[in-house]
Design goal:
It comes from Streptomyces indicus. It is a single chain. A six-stranded mixed β-sheet has the order 8-9-10-3-11-12, with helices on both faces. Strands 2-1-4-5 form a four-stranded antiparallel β-sheet, covered by helices on one side. It is of the alpha/beta class. The radius of gyration is 19 Å and the shape is globular. Helix 3 crosses helix 4. Helix content is 34%, strand content 26%. The N and C termini lie far apart (57 Å). It binds adenosine-5'-diphosphate (ADP). Adenosine-5'-diphosphate binds next to strand 2 and helix 1.
């Protein structure tokens, strides 16, 4: 028999995102309403760690709401969300599931980074400081560690020479690349991308998508991406989820969804956007 001892030390998830294909995100019967409008309707889906999943579907079908739920910017009316085995929306106390407190939510959220449509950089901080801020304040990294990490990421997004600029001095595409570096500096397990190129001038889109292709190719990070850039989605996705009316109506590989979808609704949507 093989008597080789196994390493008993579990990997620090912030340093080594699990890429064993285990389930990282699970939505279970999630319903979200705004007033009388049911935006997500008893939604169930899961994302395995290390995968790149793209959400497509008509405007208003609830895609952004899914990312906002994961960021705890909004809360579900019904159902549960799990990230890395922990309930995001609930916590276990005394053997019972109760609505999650702020501390629990902050801990689970450390695993999640998000890049928004409108970059949202801190306007009063230079580029380098924008990236260092959260690792120092939230993770407790030393300034030196945070700076080394920030410089490495700026290099990766092609902006090493802009570290002392204020965001307003950069183009939209450059600001968005800084925002990507800022999200990655937290070493999240999941990167949420919410139509990150839709506020950009057309000539700046490719540079941002190239950076994201690099991230997808060279890191283990799990990506959940809402985008109208169908070629990009096709390139980077392991799985595409097609939303309509607050539900996933179809999911599959990009070849399947873009090439030979089962649903008429998917076909209609794609012929309108492609
Ligand atoms: P998508 O990303 O697919 O375009 P969203 O998730 O942004 O869709 O929005 C889904 C629906 O929820 C839309 O009808 C939108 O108007 C509504 N909605 C989203 N956020 C709010 C909010 N904070 N208050 C009221 N309605 C909202």
């Amino acid at each position: 028999a093989d008597t080789t001892p196994t390493d008993p030390t579990p990997a620090d998830p912030h340093q080594n995102p699990a890429v064993d294909g285990s389930e990282l995100i699970r939505f279970d019967k999630v319903t979200k309403r705004f007033g009388g409008n049911t935006v997500l309707d008893n939604l169930c889906f899961s994302v395995d760690s290390g995968k790149h999943v793209t959400l497509i579907g008509p405007s208003g079908s609830g895609k952004t709401t899914i990312l906002r739920l994961l960021m705890t910017l909004v809360k579900p009316d019904e159902g549960t969300i799990k990230v890395n085995g922990d309930y995001l929306t609930h916590e276990e106390r005394g053997g019972k599931l109760v609505p999650a407190g702020e501390k629990h939510i902050r801990e689970v959220r450390k695993n999640i980074g998000m890049v928004f449509q409108q970059f949202n950089l801190f306007p009063n901080m230079r580029v380098l400081q924008n990236i260092m801020e959260a690792p120092v304040q939230v993770l407790g990294l030393s300034k030196d560690e945070a700076e080394a990490r920030a410089r490495e990421l700026l290099d990766m997004v092609g902006l090493a020479d802009r570290c002392n600029d204020y965001p307003s001095r950069l183009s939209g595409g450059q600001q968005q690349r800084v925002a990507i570096a800022r999200a990655l500096a937290m070493r999240p397990q999941v990167l949420l991308l919410d139509e990150v190129t839709s506020a950009l001038d057309p000539e700046l889109v490719a540079g941002v998508l190239d950076v994201l292709r690099d991230v997808a190719r060279t890191t283990d990070i799990t990506m959940l991406c809402v985008t109208h850039e169908m070629n990009f989605a096709r390139d980077i996705s392991d799985q595409v989820l097609m939303f309509d009316g607050g539900k996933v109506i179809e999911s599959g590989s990009p070849d399947k969804i873009f090439g030979d979808p089962d649903h008429e609704r998917t076909r209609e949507f794609l012929s309108a956007v492609l």
